[in-house]
Design goal:
about 270 residues, Rossmann fold, 6 helices, alpha/beta
Amino acid sequence: MNPLHIVVCGSVVPDPLQTLEPVTTAAGPELKNEMLLPAVLDPWAACSLYEAAHLAQLSSGSRVWLVCLGPKAKVQQAMMSLAQKAAFELVLLDGPAHGFADAHVTAEALAAAIAGLAGLDRTHLLLFGGWESASRGQGVTLQMVGERLGITDQFQGVDRIALGDDGSFEVIERVEGGKHLVSRCDGPPAVLGWATGERGEPRNDPQMGMKNMRVLLPALQKAAPVAVSAEGLKYEGVRVPTQQRQTRIVKDMSPEAIAQELLAWMQ
């Protein structure tokens, strides 16, 4: 089996348990007190990272990079726990991680960082990332990164990948109606936007954490600042979604009538 060079694109996001309040500032829309919120790796990107680490173990000589665009302090916070779950090399771009930046600008910065990776062989490249994102949820960023790198074989909503001995692989993608599309690719390079995958969150491994931190700390110190602006974009409004609830109280209604009304509503 040929070695793989897997590049995972991801960013940090506020902990999902926190209350997020968008605000409009002089610099554009942002999250209120964003730098005070605890940060974690984007759950979609985390699924793709765990899948990448698993695939790298199956093929000798494989390497995994995590290319992350986010605030340096927040990325360092997330790496303290993530380093114990998977083996990877970090490439950090120090910039904003909120979801208001233009996807084109974000993709350009990520593609430039990937193109400059030392030791990367594009003939063995698999570009991983989240099918969606908890921060940059436009659903197009990963696709544009692949296009900027000249990768035309792209799969979105991936749940599984099976490697072949000849370098080819089979991809299981989600499609409408709860079904899956099975595709066969002759080999890298390819872009795979992962859904949830099949791997659970790995257990903490302190030994792996210590090994990873030897390379993660220098990577954090060498983080390149990147200006990811929303210049040219205009947001008509930034607010928390309003809650809407419609309640109708009806007495002495038979179960059959309730079922008929529910069926009519669903249709």
